[in-house]
Amino acid sequence: MHRHILSVTVENEPGVLSRVAGLFSGRGFNIESLNVAPTLEPDVSHMTITTIGDDAIIEQIVKQLRKLITVIKVVDLTEHKAVQREMALMKVLAEDRNRAEILRIVDIFRCKVVDVGHGDLTLEAIGDFGKIQALINLLTRFGIKEIARTGTVALKRAMQD
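User: That's the sequence. What structure does it adopt?
Assistant: Structure tokens below.
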């Protein structure tokens, strides 16, 4: 089982998100993360769907997505070089004795402190899935009070067909 990132271009109309999500749930597939937003064309949206499965499962998902009338294009970015990013906001317990160490980690990971409380720091981290996971793993020992993640957004790198 591998993590796959699907780039899906769809018509921007009511019910499209529901139909795509229904395709996954109706067949027992899990969506790890889903992002959708309009493109430069107001009647077209771009979805980035992250899911886990073996090649046969992903191939079935892609074929089923392509059958939906509102789907314009589907690309499994796992098969291509792609730029991937995720954003995470994390509220971390930051007592006086730990604050300097947390700030060193923030600096190493090129994060931003976006809010400061008496006993916590709210951090903004942007990077690929692995970077966000590594940061979470390091900060867990201090105590992560709250976390919000965007999930992956991705685009195929230039100079590829």
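The two ends are 26 Å apart (CA to CA).
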